[in-house]
Amino acid sequence: MSRSQNTDSPTVTVAAVVAAALGLASAALSAYWAAGGTALLNTIGGAIAEWGRHGGPGVRFALWLIVLLKVGVGVAAPAIADLPRISPAWTRTRVPRLLSWIAASILIAYGAVLTGSELIAFTGMLGTPPSVDRLALAWHAFVWDPWFLLWGVAFLVCLVRTRPSAVASTRP
To answer: What band does 4 get if pLDDT is binned at 50, 70 and 90?
Structure first.
């Protein structure tokens, strides 16, 4: 894809920077937990928090893989938008863009479904059991899962605003 007018728009720049910031911040938190940190684990709740506190090498390895995935997705939006103006041309080709669309869709679906269901559970509209960890539920409903949703939306905006136009694709 050649550079289009849209890659220079402020909307693309803001969307790419927001997507990168949210992705890299999420990766940093995961890296902290992978390195053995325990702060905020109580806001995750359940078995995942326990694995983080007491997990062995397998859990640490899985967390480091998650860190790598989050870093990759985190830097994808600026690369697609060629924000540093040094991104290799292949970052804007069909396969990276397709993978980026998939990643953005997963982030949005994950964030939207979980945020919606957790907000419903948090309100107690469907009779939330008393055994529910209210702290973890609140953090998921208001922080962790909306974070994924916002990350996905910012990434999607970047992808939509940098897609090759139909006019450009019909030119010789």
So the answer is: very low
